[in-house]
Write a structure and sequence with these properties.
single chain; about 400 residues; mainly alpha; about 0% strand
């Protein structure tokens, strides 16, 4: 049986993500919430630091498939060569800051390991985001599928590090796996060009990408609000207790994340070719139907979560109810894949309204529910607020997607 590249890419993405989940779950079975909480706290700044690139990779991810659809290969290469040199500069600065913070701020071997691992995560994030934006043709998606498969296998082979060395082994695993994954992306990169800074191309990329970055940031950053609330008003141990809930959210994000990497460049390529907005709405309805069926199937996990946590992750027995709530939140978050349509159309005004609405909902509802209830059920109340906020936010997004895809040409 011969599978299309979209199917192969989706399967490889799922395999990579499930291997990451397996690593996380194994770590939870060995490591207590206090140390997991320390690691999660170290990564809170990660989404904020991506802002430093000023939307370079977002602009690149939109413009490459768009100009490929218009068959403008020379311009595509200029975009890639420019982004390559800028990304290299960001990476070098990130590595330097990591070294300084590790030796001047961190105390003790484990804290230094957390700083180094988090620093490598952020440094490779710049490179990975840039390279991932360049995989846009059919042949490049085949190569990216290979990268995902190799990366997943390597990650699974490194699991014994956790078993033998506990938290330190987990840090070593994350560090080594992150570096190897980036090396694979570099080796299979579709554009092997000399780096060249091009001021006009750089400004054009930022002009397109910065609004996308700002609006994507505005929409996604509320997901850090609950973590900040938990750290400041409860404890890092309580943050560690949310690890099973985070695993559930990750599970529901597997397929949408895999599909988005193929869905976004594909619809942008097609839009560059025909300029038809309504065709995007038809694609939205098709994807929404698939997500509904898959999400409903995923809700079956509600029946096994209590048993799984109590028997396999007893250190997280207090997290049963918030994990079940996370399943509902994850189901709704699956629809975030549709947000890419705003980027394809450069519908910045609608994006702002959707992002701002989600921001306000995430800031107010979980906080109000936390302060109104007894502190014994504080985590449950916070996650209940997140579920309500995500439901309203999803409805608002779909409404505005309908609006931007039904604009008639004058």
């Amino acid at each position: 049986m011969k599978f299309g590249i979209g199917t192969v890419f989706t399967i490889s993405s799922l395999f990579k993500t499930f291997s990451g989940m397996a690593i996380s779950l194994f770590a939870l079975s060995i490591i207590g919430p206090e140390k997991i909480g320390l690691w999660h706290a170290a990564l809170i700044l990660k989404p904020y630091l991506g802002f430093a690139q000023l939307g370079l990779t977002e602009g690149l991810g939109r413009e490459l498939p768009f100009y490929m659809g218009k068959n403008r290969g020379a311009k595509v290469k200029r975009y890639v060569a420019n982004a390559q040199i800028v990304t290299l500069m960001y990476t070098l600065v990130s590595i330097l800051l990591t070294l300084l913070l590790t030796f001047l701020v961190a105390e003790g071997i484990e804290e230094k390991m957390v700083f180094v691992t988090a620093g490598v995560f952020i440094s490779t994030m710049f490179v990975d985001n840039y390279l991932s934006s360049t995989y846009r043709s059919t042949s490049s998606f085949q190569d990216l599928s290979r990268v995902y498969i190799y990366s997943a296998i390597i990650g699974l082979l490194l699991i014994p590090l956790i078993y033998y060395y506990d938290f330190r082994g987990y840090m070593w695993l994350l560090l080594v796996h992150s570096l190897i994954s980036t090396i694979l992306l570099v080796y299979f990169r579709p554009f092997k060009l000399k780096s060249k800074f091009d001021k006009l191309i750089y400004m054009a990329t930022v002009k397109t990408g910065f609004p996308m970055l700002a609006l994507n940031f505005l929409r996604s950053i509320p997901e850090t609000y609950p973590k900040i609330l938990i750290i400041f008003f409860i404890s890092t141990t309580a943050l560690g207790l949310t690890a099973p809930a985070n695993a559930a959210l990750m599970a529901f994000g597997v397929l949408p994340a895999a599909l988005a990497k193929y869905f976004y460049p594909t619809i942008t390529y097609q839009y560059g070719k025909d300029g038809n907005r309504y065709n995007l709405w038809l694609k939205i309805k098709q994807i929404s139907g698939y997500l509904l069926l898959l999400g409903l199937a995923g809700l079956i996990s509600l029946t096994i979560i209590p048993y799984a946590i109590e028997n396999f992750f007893p250190k997280y027995a207090e997290a049963v109810y918030i994990t079940m709530l996370a399943v509902g939140i994850g189901f709704l978050r699956m629809y975030s894949i549709l947000y890419n349509v705003f980027n394809t159309l450069k519908s910045y005004r609608a994006q702002f309204k959707v992002s701002m609405t989600r921001n306000i909902l995430y800031l107010i509802i979980p906080s109000v529910m936390y302060f109104m209830d007894s502190k014994e059920d504080s985590l449950v109340m916070i996650f209940s607020g997140l579920l309500i906020a995500e439901f309203i936010s999803t409805l608002v997004m779909i409404y505005f997607l309908y609006q931007v895809t039904h604009i008639k040409k004058s």
